[in-house]
Amino acid sequence: LVKHRPENNARIRYLTSEEEVRLRAVVQERFPEHLPELDLALHTRLRLSEMYSLIWENVNVSRRVLTVLRSKNGERRHVPLNGAALAALERIRAQGDGSGPIFRNAEGERLTGPRYWFEPAIQTAKIRDFTWHCLRHTFASRLLMAGVDIRTVQELMGHKQISMTVRY
Question: Which single residue of 23, 50, 135, 160 has CA 20 to 30 Å from 118?
Answer without folding.
Answer: 160
